[in-house]
Amino acid sequence: MTWRNTYFLPEEVSSHNTRGDCWVTIHGVVKNVSQLIEEFGYDVNLVNPILQEAGQDISYWFEMDGLGVIKLKTHLLPETGARVSLLPFRIPHGPKFEPDVNWEPDISTTPWWADEKYNVGVETVRPINVQIINPLIKRSATIKICFEDTVQRIMERYSVYNPKICTYIVKYLGNILNTNLNLIQNGVTLKYEDSVEDYIPTLMLYYQERLAPWRVV
């Protein structure tokens, strides 16, 4: 699974909020910048602004061009033509804080905010709730998931309630769900008809002796 197919709830991102485990979100992309913090840790003035926003959305630091490229917000001083950052502080790979007419981005180095090596996933466009019932043990749980989660990912989230979830198949209204697809792709209703309120779908678990065609990883 690539980072483009890995989705996180906002609270999952916000839990990574320390110097040694620092995530941020930029225009929906979740980045693990712990390595960056370690690399530039010699200069607290560079890393402190990021650490103060650890686990948060820092999209307001950046803008996205028509090609989807993320760029640091800068502007030209009309008096001098110098390009300066709109941020009131410096960050790694950013321009000098003071006006510098000669500053240009270092094209030999991809700035961290545009470097995919820091990407770990995508923040969900909408968290939703789903009810999961195991009729064998008469147990029900309602869990929060990402709108984009595949059924396999949903079961991985549910595994905290049942570590042996890989021995179950999942059904909705009597139909076996394809674990490689999300709920919408499986035809699961997520909205009440003629209502803006979310509908909480109910998934049923059915035990089988052999392992289901997927495993919790």
TrEMBL record:
Function: Radial spoke stalk protein that binds heme under oxidizing conditions. Required for the coordinated beating of multiple cilia maybe by functioning in a redox signaling pathway.
Single GO term (MF): metal ion binding
Family: Belongs to the cytochrome b5 family.
Source organism phylogeny: Eukaryota, Metazoa, Ecdysozoa, Arthropoda, Hexapoda
Keyword Metal-binding assigned: yes
Stored Gene3D superfamilies: Cytochrome b5-like heme/steroid binding domain (3.10.120.10)
UniProt name for this protein: Cytochrome b5 domain-containing protein 1
GO CC field: axoneme
Annotated Pfam families: Cyt-b5 (PF00173)
Subcellular location: Cytoplasm, Cytoskeleton, Cilium axoneme
UniProt cross-references to InterPro entries, sorted A to Z: Cyt_B5-like_heme/steroid-bd, Cyt_B5-like_heme/steroid_sf, Cytochrome_b5_domain
Keyword entries, A-Z: Cell projection, Cytoplasm, Cytoskeleton, Heme, Iron, Metal-binding
Domain Cytochrome b5 heme-binding as annotated: residue spans: 10-62
